[in-house]
């Protein structure tokens, strides 16, 4: 048998790559184009719950991007109390394979990949679905993915005002301080959900609730706003979908009835969001198959559950840059 080698990138390797905002967005956007052109395979995520879903669980995401010649399986843990141990709430490993032979191609620490690609999906959703003149961002939540949401959104929109809120005072203050330093602008901490959300042009809900609770009120959403909720447990009212002119998801297969978790789970189960009421998957819009925002008065909802394809696309960009820079290890598999 021929010898098989694969590339290993650990956390320090990923940090040394220093991917720019533009590189991250381009990698994830290319994966969305492939999805929109039907050049991918996506399997709905599955879950492994060790004890209690309120404490945490594992997500297993699987997909193939044919233009890149890569198949990927990512296992990511999402455990709400990790901060008590000095750990991020999400820790992940991504395995990449040759889709023609099954041979391993790479193993990457995907903790940062998960954060970056989630932020990129949020930002790219806004690129195509938010009003071009959006100047006020409201962000609920301060977990790992939140930083990249705000950073990449601001890269595209250069907001006049950024408001943040999260349940724990120490976490929201630290979050705002980090963002203010890195973005070079004031990030305002709010004491409650309403003062964060009301009147914002773009609303991101990335809370981590132990159980569904409608903390984000529909009446706070202004006409023409883009709302992007993606918490594991729903924080929105059932009426949220009633005010939407368009509803977009990243992958309908991961949103349909019969699957657990997700901010719009009840909306799907009660047919408020269905194949009939869905406007498009984001990949269809990015690939030019369907329209994004068409006027400033449209109020739009974008629900992204997390795409294996964005993990694979971003990992491919990392591997290419690592090869150019001589970063990472080549390990023998067989």
From TrEMBL:
Record's GO cellular component terms: cytoplasm
One Pfam family cited in the UniProt record for this chain: OCD_Mu_crystall
UniProt xrefs under InterPro entries: NAD(P)-bd_dom_sf, ODC_Mu_crystall, ODC_N
Name the UniProt record assigns to this protein: Ornithine cyclodeaminase
Gene source species: Caballeronia sordidicola
């Amino acid at each position: 048998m021929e010898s098989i080698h694969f590339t290993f990138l650990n956390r320090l390797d990923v940090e040394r790559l220093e991917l720019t905002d533009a590189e991250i967005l381009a990698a994830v956007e290319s994966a969305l184009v492939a999805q929109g052109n039907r050049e991918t395979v996506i399997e709905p995520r599955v879950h492994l719950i060790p004890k209690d879903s309120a404490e945490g669980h594992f997500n297993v995401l699987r997909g193939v991007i044919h233009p890149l010649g890569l198949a990927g399986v990512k296992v990511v843990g999402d455990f709400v109390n990790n901060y008590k141990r000095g750990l991020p709430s999400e820790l992940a490993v991504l395995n990449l394979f040759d889709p023609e032979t099954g041979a391993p191609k790479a193993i990457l620490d995907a903790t940062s990949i998960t954060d970056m690609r989630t932020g990129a999906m949020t930002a790219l959703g806004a690129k195509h679905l938010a009003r071009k003149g959006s100047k006020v961002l409201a962000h609920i939540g301060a977990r790992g993915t939140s930083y990249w949401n705000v950073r990449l959104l601001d890269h595209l929109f250069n907001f006049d005002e950024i408001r943040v809120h999260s349940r724990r005072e120490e976490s929201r203050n630290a979050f705002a301080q980090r963002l203010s330093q890195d973005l070079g602008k004031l990030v305002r901490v709010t004491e409650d959900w309403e003062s964060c959300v009301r009147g914002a042009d773009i609303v991101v809900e990335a809370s981590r609730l132990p159980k569904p609770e409608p903390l984000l009120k529909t009446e706070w959403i202004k006409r023409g706003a883009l709302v992007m909720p993606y918490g594991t447990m729903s924080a929105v009212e059932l009426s949220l979908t009633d005010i939407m002119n368009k509803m977009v998801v990243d992958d309908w297969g991961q949103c349909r009835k019969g699957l657990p978790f997700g901010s719009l789970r009840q909306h799907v189960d009660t047919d408020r969001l269905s194949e009939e009421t869905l406007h498009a998957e984001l990949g269809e819009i990015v690939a030019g198959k369907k329209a994004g925002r068409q006027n400033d008065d449209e109020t739009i909802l974008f629900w992204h559950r997390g795409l294996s394809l964005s993990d694979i696309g971003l990992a491919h960009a990392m591997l290419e840059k690592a090869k150019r820079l001589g970063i990472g290890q080549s390990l023998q598999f067989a």
